[in-house]
Amino acid sequence: MRMSRSFLVAFLGFLVLAVLIQAQDQSGFISIACGAPAGVNFTEPQTGLNYTSDANFINTGVSRTIVPELRDRYLRHVWNLRSFPEGKRNCYKINITRGSKYLIGASFLYGNYDGLNMLPQFDLLLGANLWDTVDIKNASVSRSFEIIYVPSLDYVHICMVDTGLGTPFISAIALRSLRNDIYETEFGSLQTYIRRDLGSNEGYRYDDDVYDRYWGYDDADTWYDNVDKWKQLNFPIDADSLVQNHYQPPAVVMSTAVTPANVSAPLVISWMPYDPEESFYVYMHFTEIQVLAKNQTREFNITLNGKPSSFKNVSLMYHSVRTIYTTSGISGKLINFSFVMTETSTLPPIINAIEIYRVKEFPQPDTYQGDVDAITTIKSVYGVTRDWQGDPCSPKDYLWEGLNCTYPVVDSPRIITLNLSSSGLSGKIDPSILNLTMLEKLDLSNNSLNGEVPDFLSQLQHLKILNLENNNLSGSIPSTLVEKSKEGSLSLSVGQNPHLCESGQCNEKEKGKGEDKKNTVTPVVASVGGVVIILVAVAAILWTLKSRNSKASMVEKDQSQISPQYTEQDDSLLQFKKQIYSFSDVLKITNNFNTTLGKGGFGTVYLGHINDTPVAVKMLSPSSVHGYQQFQAEVKLLMRVHHKNLTSLVGYCNEGTSKGLIYEYMANGNLLEHLSGKHGKTKFFTWEERLRIAVDAALGLEYLQNGCKPPIIHRDVKSTNILLNELFQAKLSDFGLSKVIPTEGVTHVSTVVAGTPGYLDPEYFITNRLTEKSDVYSFGVVLLEIITSQPVIARNQENIHISEWVSSLIMKGDIKAIVDSRLEGAYDTNSVWKAVEIATACVSPNLNKRPITSVIVVELKESLAMELARTKNRGTNTRDSVTSVTMNLNTEFIPQAR
Ligand SMILES: *[C@@H]1O[C@H](CO)[C@@H](O)[C@H](O)[C@H]1NC(C)=O
Ligand SMILES: *[C@@H]1O[C@H](CO)[C@@H](O)[C@H](O)[C@H]1NC(C)=O
Ligand SMILES: *[C@@H]1O[C@H](CO)[C@@H](O)[C@H](O)[C@H]1NC(C)=O
Ligand SMILES: *[C@@H]1O[C@H](CO)[C@@H](O)[C@H](O)[C@H]1NC(C)=O
Ligand SMILES: *[C@@H]1O[C@H](CO)[C@@H](O)[C@H](O)[C@H]1NC(C)=O
Ligand SMILES: *[C@@H]1O[C@H](CO)[C@@H](O)[C@H](O)[C@H]1NC(C)=O
Ligand SMILES: *[C@@H]1O[C@H](CO)[C@@H](O)[C@H](O)[C@H]1NC(C)=O
Ligand SMILES: *[C@@H]1O[C@H](CO)[C@@H](O)[C@H](O)[C@H]1NC(C)=O
Ligand SMILES: *[C@@H]1O[C@H](CO)[C@@H](O)[C@H](O)[C@H]1NC(C)=O
């Protein structure tokens, strides 16, 4: 029954029976035949694809050839392969355009190249992350892995890692540049799971497909019992006559389709994921392939797992491609799409092609590009022969030998240790080391380095340990280094350098001609301690001798390196106007991310201070931000959003992968803390206070929807995102990454998969269609929490949702059991009923029954008015008095919105 995973397999290398008509444009394609002799370029006659040897992309591994018998079955580009008997990690480095979307394929055909018939298993890395494990199951079957990926650097590393289960190898690599506006995800990359030309008995790829996607054909293994319920249709379409969309499914693929064999039954496409947690994106391609008569119509509804989707009354145009796709991940034990003919349709549904991708998250950011460039330069300057390939710091387990790195939660790893001791280095100390700006420990001991100890080493701000022992260094030790070691901020070891002299005994004028000097004298003997003592004594003398200018310029440079913007305007409120902060500003504002306020779906929130004003700094985890301009565009919009019930954005940081949002700080934390009373310093809210908070939050939401053009959908309304200031006024927060709804007739909006369980609109979950009503649902859940102080999902075996719990009590008419019992009856019953009514309407499964936010605001104010009437005028609880209070409420009790 289960779909075989071997479907990930075997397309790229397989012999495809597509007839070459004429070569399409291959710009944006990189096709590498691994192990092919250097300098060889060839064109596959079957596909017209031009391949090059891998010689320019890697300099390790050995070229091998598959057994000759297999050559008849496979295309030439997998006849050779590159095998890696040496080294743990071997990497290809392929130049690409950063921020562009690529379809990347890697193929593996073992072909018993080594005559051992031992099937290897090894890891495949993409950049800093594990892409997949390559598990060769059959020597004569090619395995392929394919992913849609947006590289963040100017190149990609594709690495094979020896995990002790056989010698890694690779047969072919293919990169195809895609449009950036197709196959969009919230985060993560898309791994090809199934791609099928439905209704066909042949597979197709380039040059039928402009992107060289391989379209497989119907088979019982993939679709198990679906297939025999289908009927194949085939009405050839000429490529020129097909009206395309951006997905560009090939005309030959669109020429065939499937339809239910039983005309009155639905068409079903279903599969069972191995892991119900896996998240999928599905792209379905349709076109009408038959000429319909006047009295014929083809129209269908699409359901997902038996529930209606937003795709109803779908109709198709003759020879015009229509692609319907999910805009967020879907998952489950069984995923079942049914296409149901509508009542008015005379023809059964059809579908021409389908693509299913699995979301693959790559959480580990690549090492900071500046560090990578620097260490790469160092490697080539000294001809370092170590096994240094791929990303220097990541994955952590494969850290380059001699390096140590920090792995900040929100940022790229940085190199902090470089140990090149006993590595046969010669020549001078290279200035490229200076570009490892976070370096704390530098060990160059036991080499043959010559020349002077360069002054620039003192510019490494974080350097704590410098070991230059046992080299051929000469000249004097720069005073700046001497000072640092005097202060105790640097541990300096310079012993066993016969020509190195103490600064005080060097002739300043002859500096730079160290080799010529005869009276260099007194080799600095011992390391650290000894040197430090001598140098301390010398330092004072030196201080006066040393040119003041060089000292002064040094300091200035240091400051400007730290934080130009910040330093210039340190004491000015203009800071708030500037709004763009560099990463080093953020470090300073947050005191190196010293205090964590919380963790959210998009990243971690830290406490910071700008001119003594506290702020909350949210650093976005790199995986949650895709699209470089998009972040900036969204933030710029949010900068303009101002409302007293929304936490205001003070500024932002957008430096490479460091993306942060700076918000006003809310002194009293979030609503949930107080409702649950979990943490020490919480306040118990009266019914009136609860309603005021509800009104505040509703006003914030209403402003996002009605006050902003285009409207903003929050997407993550929940009690932890309702923050309280020092006066316990509520503000909605965390709309920082809300998606803006485009105004012109767009049916649905691409969204973050996440949301928060319990708050996520179940309707949205099914339809992937995001509307204002999704936020209304979440708000309803919050309102239920405010009323009941109960957890959203009961922490017992039944996991009952707060809305089910409340509705079961409503059935019984038991209002007392619904309200937080700690209120001890101190509330107006009608006020509570009204609030419960609003909340239950908000969480209605029927979108149309959910009120719009402006109605919610009005109703909540009425509920508040009822409660105020009780507290002001105990005993009077008639409808009339309520109404009168309501009328002056707006001017008297509720602070006006800005
Ligand atoms: C592919 O290679 C052939 C033969 O070398 C050449 O004529 C053709 O222009 C190349 N095509 C592309 C798109 O690079
Ligand atoms: C092979 O192709 C590559 C990339 O297209 C090109 O740089 C190289 O010059 C070609 N080599 C030969 C021998 O044609
Ligand atoms: C990749 O780019 C780098 C830097 O631009 C360049 O030095 C290198 O030669 C390029 N590699 C290839 C294979 O084109
Ligand atoms: C390997 O695959 C080939 C071709 O598909 C098949 O004939 C052979 O039986 C397979 N071998 C094993 C050991 O499964
Ligand atoms: C065709 O499908 C309909 C509706 O599902 C069903 O009632 C009918 O029995 C099916 N006919 C055949 C021949 O299977
Ligand atoms: C449609 O019209 C054709 C004649 O033009 C007729 O033969 C056919 O029965 C009609 N079909 C339906 C469903 O009315
Ligand atoms: C298809 O959807 C429409 C619109 O929601 C609905 O009226 C109709 O009953 C549905 N038809 C079927 C067969 O499910
Ligand atoms: C690398 O740095 C970490 C943190 O600073 C430290 O715990 C670890 O011991 C270091 N590893 C090596 C090999 O120096
Ligand atoms: C350091 O990096 C900068 C910018 O990335 C580069 O221009 C410079 O050449 C590098 N310096 C050295 C000495 O490699």
UniProtKB/TrEMBL annotation:
One GO cellular component term noted in the UniProt record for this chain: membrane
Keyword Repeat: yes
Signal peptide: 1-23
CDD domains from the UniProt entry: STKc_IRAK
Binding positions for ATP per the UniProt entry: 618
Domain Protein kinase: 591-864
GO MF annotation terms: ATP binding; protein serine/threonine kinase activity
Location relative to the cell: Membrane
Broad class of where this protein is predominantly found: membrane
The reaction(s) this protein catalyses: L-seryl-[protein] + ATP = O-phospho-L-seryl-[protein] + ADP + H(+); L-threonyl-[protein] + ATP = O-phospho-L-threonyl-[protein] + ADP + H(+)
Segments traversing the membrane: 524-545
Topology in membrane: Single-pass membrane protein
Enzyme class: transferase
Keywords: ATP-binding, Kinase, Leucine-rich repeat, Membrane, Nucleotide-binding, Phosphoprotein, Receptor, Repeat, Serine/threonine-protein kinase, Signal, Transferase, Transmembrane, Transmembrane helix
Keyword match Transmembrane: yes
EC number: 2.7.11.1
Superkingdom, taxonomy of origin: Eukaryota
PANTHER family xrefs: OS07G0107800 PROTEIN-RELATED (PTHR45631), SENESCENCE-INDUCED RECEPTOR-LIKE SERINE_THREONINE-PROTEIN KINASE (PTHR45631:SF202)
Name of the protein: non-specific serine/threonine protein kinase
Lineage of the organism: Eukaryota, Viridiplantae, Streptophyta, Embryophyta, Tracheophyta
